Amino acid sequence: MSLDDLNDDITSQYSDLDDELAVDLDRETKNELAMLAAVFETDEPAELLRRGVHLLYRQAVESGDLDFHLRSAYDVTYDEYLSGMTYDEMAGGDSLPSLDDENRYRM
Prior knowledge:
Blueprint: H1 3-16, H2 27-39, H3 45-63, H4 65-74, H5 78-83, H6 87-91
Region (Disordered): 88-107
Pfam families: RHH_11
């Protein structure tokens, strides 16, 4: 997998999400959402779900969990995704000649 594969998968997932997303909640999640709605005094549970997604995303980025999964599945990091280039591309590693035994010292 590569950075291009990741971009294709994100685009595909994004288009699969509708503006309105129907989510089935189990009893525990429904109870927790009701508690948060009461505590934060909101009549719109969807706002709490949006906040939850943002929190999970930020936590995954800050803990390195997102990088771990990106590296495992796509062989890229979040920074590489944001820049649109891999570290090798940034450093010009793709344009360097091969360092086989015959060409090792010819640069």
